[in-house]
Amino acid sequence: MPKMLSNIGFKFMCWSFKIFKKKDKILKILKEANIKPGDVILDYGCGPGNFSIPAAQIVGDKGIVYAADMHPLSAQYVLKNTQKASVTNVETLLTSCKTGLNENSVDVVLLFDVFHYFKEIKPIFTELHRVLKPSGNIALEIHHMDENKAINSITETNMFNVREKKEHLVILQKTTK
Ligand SMILES: C[S@@+](CC[C@H](N)C(=O)[O-])C[C@H]1O[C@@H](n2cnc3c(N)ncnc32)[C@H](O)[C@@H]1O
Fold first, then answer.
1. Residue located nearest, by CA, to atom 9 of ligand 1
2. Fewer CB within 10 Å, N or C, the chain?
3. Residue 32 and residue 4: Cα distance in Å, rounded?
């Protein structure tokens, strides 16, 4: 099990997100991720779900957002926030790697502000590669580390390459062999 925040640390993080993660910026970033109505989204390392809930509103009734996090408090926050927003198409997953989702089932993985937590990236990217549709993408947002270093370590797995760099996100696609 990778190192996890204490409950107090997690609560503090959620409180700080409430203040610093502004709605208009969240929507701008989700727009860059190019998610569409009907999409299946995996918000991996979702925290309290600041992105999961607006993503669920974008994908609508025909789509779904899987909000995955290794911290047990995450689901409580996500559920509280879905209820507040009257959103019913978010499912929480407690995991530090395996999601249990079907292979080739996800349109977009949101990997926001979580990459720097990963000690071993291969198992996680193997899982993301498994669940993504052939046309699927990872929308990657890097914080707290050098972006190029992060991208190189991902492309070295030979599972993904960079499709596009945007203002806030790097869009990764599955490598075709
Ligand atoms: C800094 S928060 C980012 C939350 C959210 N993605 C955002 O941008 O608002 C990182 C989250 O990733 C989770 N996390 C870290 N490593 C993980 C792993 N291996 N599997 C699942 N969740 C993980 C942490 O518990 C934490 O909630």
1. 50
2. C
3. 29
